[in-house]
Amino acid sequence: MDKIKKIRQAIQVLSPTELAAFRRWFRDFDAKAWDRQIKEDLRAGKLDTLADQAYQEFISGKGRKM
Predict the structure, then answer these.
(1) What is the pTM assigned to this prediction?
(2) C or N: which end of the chain has fewer Cβ atoms within 10 Å?
């Protein structure tokens, strides 16, 4: 937890420009981490049940346009 405390303290003293740059960096970092996790879950078959359920609902007429 010490690392998180240090990160929080460092963020609190950033200038508005530095904070904006950090937000952009973290947004991109987080999106890439999310993409990696989704790809791993897909490869591992963790989303197969959800995909099958959605497909069954679609072909049974329970789907709706978005």
Answers:
(1) 0.68
(2) C
